[in-house]
Amino acid sequence: MIIRRSTWRLAALLGMGALGACSVFSSSRQPGPAGAAVSVTPVAAGACAPGIWFCEDFENGLGRWNLLPGGAGATIGNADGKAEIIQDGSSKVLRYDAGKSRGVVAILRDEAFSAVAARKTADYYVEARIKPINNQTSNKFVCLLGRVQDVNNWYGGCLNVQNGASSKLEFHKANGGKWLRARQFSARTIVNDQWYKLRMEMKGSELNFYIDDDFAGSFSDPSITSAGRIGMWLDNRSFAIDDIQVGSADVKPVLLSLDQDEEWTSEAGGKPLEVNVSATKSDGSPDVYSVVSSNPAVVSVKQDGKRSVLEALGAGSATITFTSGANPAKTKQIKASIEPAFVMASNTYGSLAALTQPAAGSKAAYADGELSLRFDTAPVFSGIGSVRIFRASDDTLVDVIRPKNETNIYGPSADGFYRGVNMPLMRFEGTTLVVRPHQGKLAWGEHYYVAVSAPLLKDARLAGKPFEGLGKAAGWTFSTRPAPAKTLTTLTVDDDGVKADFRSVQGALEHVMKSLSKETPVTIKVKNGTYEELLFLRGKNNVTLQGESRDGTLIQFANYEALNSGLAAGIKEQAVTNRGGRAVFAVADSDLLTIENLTLKNSHLKKVGVNGQAETIYFAADKERLIAKNANFISRQDTLQLNGYSWFYNTLVAGDVDFIWGSSKAALFENSEIRTVVDSTDASKGGYLVQARVESADDKGYVFLNSRLTREDGVPDGATVLARSAGSPRYFDNVIYVNSRMDKHISPEGWWMSPIPNPAKADGKAGWREFGSRTLSGEPLALSERVKAAHSLSEAEAAPYATREAVFSAIGWKPAP
C-alpha cells in the first residue's frame, strides 16, 4: 500500500458497519480522513522462512490489512486511534496510538491469508513481537488475535499492562460480541516500551500461550473451530507490532525452563541448590542442555540428567548459564550471590536476659513467637549474614533467617493445602532487632540457642560493646513450653502477655486446622497488641476471631501484588513460596468465619509504577459465609475481596480504588462506614467504592443498608463514585445502596461509565440501584444527575434489600448482632 498520508483517524476511515469493515476491499481506493482519497496498491506476500505459512514485517506497508474501528458490540467509547508505519531501529513496524479505542483495530484481509486458508485447517499458531506503549490511560490490554471470524468472534493472546507494570499474560475471547477475559497466566513483569514475543497456539479446542518462547499456560475452549484470520485488539493501550508469523500448531518453540528463581543467595558451604531443568525440541521431544558457571570457585555445577546441582564454594558472585542443545540462542540464567561461610562467634556480652525475648534462660517460651534482641543504638542491615537457631541438645541447625529475599510457608490446612509467600522475616523496632522464625520450625517442649552472624549488622553496639556476632557462648538459650492441648476450643493469643496459649494469630489458626474437626466451634481470643503477620485459614468451619478491643487489637502486614501476586487460598505443594496471594488474610472452604472487635489492616502504601492491589482479606467461597462485626478493615486498593455470602455489621471499611469487590452472591454492609482515603499516588484523585463481579443476575450482589459513605481529609468533592464495572458480560454489576448517607466526595453522576456496566440499564432486579440516599446530615439527595445506566428503586423494589433477612433469603440465613 502506498500511503499518501502517514496516519488515519480510524473513526472516519471506513463508512460501513462492522461486518462491512471486515470484508475484502473490491476497489483500489477507499475513503480516508475527512473524505480524502487514499491510494491502495495490493502488495504480494513477501517470502517467508521455510515452514512459515504467513509472515508480515510491514516493510511494504499496510496493504494486506483492514484497519477498522471496533464495530457494533465490540467498542466502548470513541474509536479515535491512529495507525502508522514508523522506523524502529533497523526495521519498519506498525504503531497504533490508542486514543480512547477499545475493540478490534486490525484484521488481515482474506486474500493475504489465502495460503493458510488453503490448508483447510484451523490448527495453527500466530506469533508476533509486540511493544506496549504507555498512553496514560487506566486500561491495559493489547491482544494478538487468531481464528478471527469478525470483530465479534475471535481468540486473543493478550498482554496485561497497567500503570507501567504487570505480571500477566491473558487469554481473551469474543463470542457473538461478548468479550471475556477467560484466563490469566503468571508471567514475568511486563513493562511499557519493551518488545515481547507473544505466541498463541490453537489446535482443536486446546490453546497454548507463550511469552518470549517460554510456556505460560493453556486453556481449552471449543467455541471457535474455523481458521478465520488474524488481527489485533486493544483496550486503550497503544502498541507497536512487527514480525508476525503463522505456522503449524505442531511446530512448537524450543523450550528451556528452570524450577528456580533467577536469583540465588546463599553462603559458602551452605545447602546446595537443586535445579530441575525442562528442555524440549520444537517437535516436543526431549532436548539436551548444557550448564556452566562463570566463576567455578564461587559456584560449582554438577549436571545429572534433568537435574543440575549448584554448590556454593566461596564468597562472591557467579552467573550460571543453561543453554539449549537444539537452539544455542535459547538460554536461562541464575545469578548467584554467595556470602562468606557462617562463623559461630565466641564473644560474650554479660547477661542477656533483659535484652532478649524470649529472655535468655527462659523455660516458658512459645514455639510460634518472635525473637528480639535490643541494641544500644539503632543499627542497620548490611544485606548479608543471618540469624540461626540451633537445638541445644545436639547443636542441630533448626532455622536460618536472612535479612532479604525471604519466604514463609503456612500450613498445611486440614485438607493438605499450604500458603507460600515472599515475606521479610526481620525488622527493626527502634533499637530492637525483631526476627520471625520460619513457620513451624520451632517445636513445643524443646531447648534452643540463638546465634547472630557478625556481618548481619553495621555500626551495632550490644551491652556497651561493639557487636561482633553472637554465638553459643553468649548464652541466648530458651526452652519452649509444652504444646497447648489439642482439645482446646477457646484459645488465647497475646503478643507479650504471660497467660496465653499462643503468641501469634497464625499459630492459633494452624492449631485449630490440624487439631479440631471441621465443624467443631472454636473461639480465638486475641489480646490487645500489634500482630505483624499474614494469616491462612482453610477447611475449618465455625471459627471466631475475637479481639480484645476494636482499635487495640491490630493484625497487619504490608502485603501487595508486586510482592505476592494474585489471589490465592492455598496450594498442595509445600515448596512453592511465590503463589500465596496479596491479601493479609487468605480464607477458603471455611463456613461461618466470624471476625469481631479488632482491626485488620494491609499497611502497604501505594507507589507510582508498583502494582498496589492489597486486600485485607480474600474470602474464597461458594456457599460459605463470613461475618464481620464491630471491626475495621483498612487498606487502599482492593481492601475486601469477597465471594459467597458475607455480612458486615457496624464495621469500618477504608480504601481508595475498587476497595470492595468480588463475585459475592450477597454481601451486606449494614450500619457500616465506607471511608474513601486519599490516594497516596495522587491526592487529587477520588476513588471507586465497588467493583462487582456477580456471576448471576439473580444474586443480590453488594448491598449497603443504613450505612455512611465518608472520606478522609483531603479527598476532593465530587471525585468518588459508587461503583465501576469490570466490563465483562460474564459478570453482573449488582450494587445497591438503601437508606444510606453520602458525603460530598460522591460524584453527582454517582457511577462510573467506562466500561459500560452489565446490564447497561439497571432495573429493579439487576444493575446499579439506589433508594433513599441522603446527605450526611440527613437531607434527601437529588439523584437527577445520576448516570442513565443506574436505577432509582421504588419502595416496593427496595424491599428485598431493606433487611438482612431479605438480603439472605435465598439461603434462609438470619445472622444476629
Task: Give a brief rundown of this model.
It contains 6 helices and 66 strands.
Write out key terms for the chains shown.
Pectinesterase family protein; aspartyl esterase; Immunoglobulin-like; mainly beta; 817 residues; Jelly Rolls; signal; Pectin_lyase_fold/virulence; 16-stranded parallel sheet
Structure description:
This protein has 817 residues and is mainly beta. The chain folds into 5 domains: 8-248, Sandwich (Jelly Rolls); 255-339, Immunoglobulin-like (Sandwich), CATH 2.60.40; 356-480, Immunoglobulin-like (Sandwich), CATH 2.60.40; 485-627, Single-stranded right-handed beta-helix, Pectin lyase-like (Pectate Lyase C-like); 636-817, Single-stranded right-handed beta-helix, Pectin lyase-like (Pectate Lyase C-like). Helix content is 4%, strand content 43%. It has a 16-stranded parallel β-sheet that branches. Strands 1, 4, 6, 7, 9, 14, 15, 16 and 18 form a 9-stranded antiparallel β-sheet that branches. Strand 11 (153-162) and strand 12 (165-175) form a beta hairpin. The longest helix is centred in the middle third of the chain and has 11 residues, at 505-515. Keywords: Aspartyl esterase, Hydrolase, Signal. Residues 1-21 form the signal peptide. This is Pectinesterase family protein. Belongs to the pectinesterase family.
